[in-house]
Design brief:
The structure is a homotetramer.
Chain A lengths: L10 E6 L15 H16 L4 H6 L3 E11 L8 E11 L3 E10 L4 E12 L5 E2 L14
Chain lengths: 140, 140, 140, 140
């Protein structure tokens, strides 16, 4: 993404650091960010009429197959931040999220690429049924 | 790593899935793996005389700057697995962990590259003081 | 509390279930609620000028010594809910939080009593310095 | 339990603190203990032929209805500890776990009483089918 900025993403969700997410170093633990990213993805999907839990109720499991995370700044107690989401299709059975986390003061905290697929009840990967129309072609 | 196998790693730690690590899909949640990887790294460091918490007590913070995670299989309730660790130096102020998770039956569950640095009390990155002799040159 | 209702609490904080907080059963895992309760307590303290992280920066650690949790309903994917907080003094070195969680539709999800103390740098318990004026006498 | 000691429990499971379980204070966060307790309960149940995940596969959900936790000591980075479990029946549709956590040096870290029930597919509570013979009468 040429110009990484909050305004460039079609969706963003505001969060506040919870003190139990901090580790010994007084910083949000590196593993916690994946939870932030997932929650923002699921909320984004809902805004376009798609639903992680609803898909599962129909027997389809949306799973992450690859994640790349670049940690730029650390988040601390009391920090407000935004998790931004952009989605595109990636090949036959994969979708891709470009995500970034920005502190409320605009500082870039984390950049991520998260690649997912959908598992049929049989366990075979597929593109999520009914999602085609929501997906742009990759732009990044 | 040409031949990804548990025996190729200098360190491995055994784990058992805890049911609270599962999510709605009945699989270990994607964010939980980073915790597994971190715990194995910290235990590995102890075996060679290095200590995450001890470094912090001296004012040095070891932080992740980049993580790449490839999810190959999912872990379920009751699964035993091994988290493997290999460490190398990566440039002036970075170190690198090549890690993999194998289910007890040998199935490859996840491959990861985790890049870290050490923050001085001032916040500036450095190579962790005293670590030079423990690091091989990158082999992957 | 004679009449357990959201309006009876001096403070409440709105939350939304995050899917990674669900477990295999599709319900928020029992241990996650303690995180919700803690986050609401810390945010409440800030509204009256008190700060968990700030206390720690001065060498004082606020710790939980006892928690009683009554689970009344389960929370599921997509649920919005409120965590309510009421605080009182409990003896010489303890404080007490009466807390409840209500789903957005008003259903009582959980009731909790959480007792805490403050550890001095020496490790000895004390009533948090400077907090006396903020505390009412127990009302429950 | 008159004489709270590790030997008095029919089951114990060894754990090692993982650094991501620590919070800002450098201590295991209060909410993490419920995860430890749950994991030990589920492992204990397996030793007597009962299975949380297996029950769920048959449509029965084992849920916590009340937890009482007394925090006696804090756990820190590197601590090894044991989570002990004792189980008894409590009335018509409830079971009860008396649990304690001991640091490897024998120090009592936490005492807990955890009350659970089993939800039928309909959502109504029941005593878990097939469990009667495994339960002693309460002894505490």
């Amino acid at each position: 993404m040429a110009n990484q900025a909050l305004e460039n993403f079609p969706y963003r969700l505001e969060f506040l650091v919870r003190d139990y997410e901090l580790d010994l170093l007084g910083m949000v633990n590196n593993g916690v960010y994946q939870g932030y990213l997932e929650h923002a993805r699921h909320e984004y999907l809902k805004t376009i009429g798609l639903d992680f839990a609803g898909m599962f109720a129909q027997g389809y499991r949306l799973v992450v197959v690859r994640a790349e995370l670049d940690y730029k700044q650390t988040l601390h107690s009391g920090d407000r931040f935004f998790v931004a989401v952009s989605m595109s299709r990636e090949g036959k059975v994969r979708f891709r999220f470009d995500q970034a986390i920005f502190r409320a003061d605009g500082a870039l905290v984390l950049e991520a690429k998260v690649f997912g697929t959908c598992l049929k009840p049989s366990g075979r990967p597929c593109f999520p049924p009914g999602w085609e129309s929501y997906f742009s072609t990759p732009t990044v």
